[in-house]
């Protein structure tokens, strides 16, 4: 591995450590992001499932600042598990009132999964009421150019709450309406 590349495991990230390792992995990713901001280095994420319990933010303030390069070992090998509720797991923020922007961010070869463990629910057609979708995956603000290559983001699908049918003897129960997906 080149000197221009930071490995998150060097800072203590635990792949396949489970939910109990979330604090340690999150802290390691944050240190790696800080080093990358200061030195312009790339971040490598080895194969594994990394549980993240706080937002990861890469923010630059300089005019035309270099963006983040973050890459894993493949969408089936490297997964970041988002334990946050409705917050982005990763935020790439550049750009301020002076018109500055981040340029050249590259995110590649990893997946982001919800904490529900129900990754398959994102691709199964939902029948009945439309689902609520909470991605909490990646936030891009003030990006001049960002490549996202060979990535996969699983979206947890939570069905809307259904009210029980009306059971009054004066009125027959209503039929559920069909809503196209």
How would you describe the overall organization of this protein?
10% of the residues lie in helices and 30% in strands. With 181 residues, the chain is mainly beta. It has one domain: Single-stranded right-handed beta-helix, Pectin lyase-like (Pectate Lyase C-like, 3 Solenoid), CATH 2.160.20.10. The strands form five sheets. The chain has a five-stranded parallel β-sheet, covered by helices on one side. It has a four-stranded parallel β-sheet with strand order 3-7-11-15. Helix 1 links the parallel strand 1 and strand 2. The chain is globular. The N and C termini lie far apart (46 Å). The relative contact order is 0.16. About 10% of the residues have low confidence.
Main sheet record:
5 strands, parallel
Give the amount of beta strand, in percent: 25-35%
What's the total helix number?
Answer: 1
Instruction: Give me the CATH superfamily.
Output: Single-stranded right-handed beta-helix, Pectin lyase-like
The CATH C-level name is Mainly Beta
CATH topology: Pectate Lyase C-like
Number of domain units? 1
How far is the N terminus from the C terminus? 46 Å
Query: What does the overall shape look like?
Result: globular
Work out the number of β strands. Answer: 16
Class from helix and strand fractions: mainly beta
Low-confidence stretches: 117-134
CATH architecture: 3 Solenoid
**Which strand order does the major sheet show?**
1-2-6-10-14
Q: What is the N-to-C order of secondary-structure elements (H for helix, E for strand)? A: EHEEEEEEEEEEEEEEE
Helical fraction equals under 10%
Rg estimate, integer Å: 20 Å
Mean pLDDT across the residues is: 75
């Amino acid at each position: 591995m080149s000197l221009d590349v930071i490995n998150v495991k060097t800072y203590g990230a635990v792949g396949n450590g489970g939910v109990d390792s979330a604090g340690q992995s999150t802290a390691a990713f944050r240190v790696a992001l800080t080093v990358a901001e200061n030195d312009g280095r790339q971040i490598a994420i080895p194969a594994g499932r990394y549980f993240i319990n706080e937002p990861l933010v890469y923010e630059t303030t300089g005019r035309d600042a270099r963006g983040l390069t973050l890459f894993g070992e493949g969408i089936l090998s490297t997964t970041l598990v988002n334990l946050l509720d409705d917050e982005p797991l990763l935020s790439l923020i550049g750009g301020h009132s002076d018109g500055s922007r981040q340029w050249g961010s590259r995110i590649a070869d990893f997946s982001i999964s919800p904490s529900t463990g129900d990754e398959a629910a994102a691709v199964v057609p939902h029948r009945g009421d439309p689902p609520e979708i909470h991605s909490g995956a990646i936030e891009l603000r003030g990006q001049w150019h960002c490549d996202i290559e060979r990535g996969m983001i699983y979206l947890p699908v939570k069905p809307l709450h259904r009210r029980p049918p009306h059971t009054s003897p004066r009125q027959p129960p209503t039929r559920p309406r069909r809503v196209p997906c």
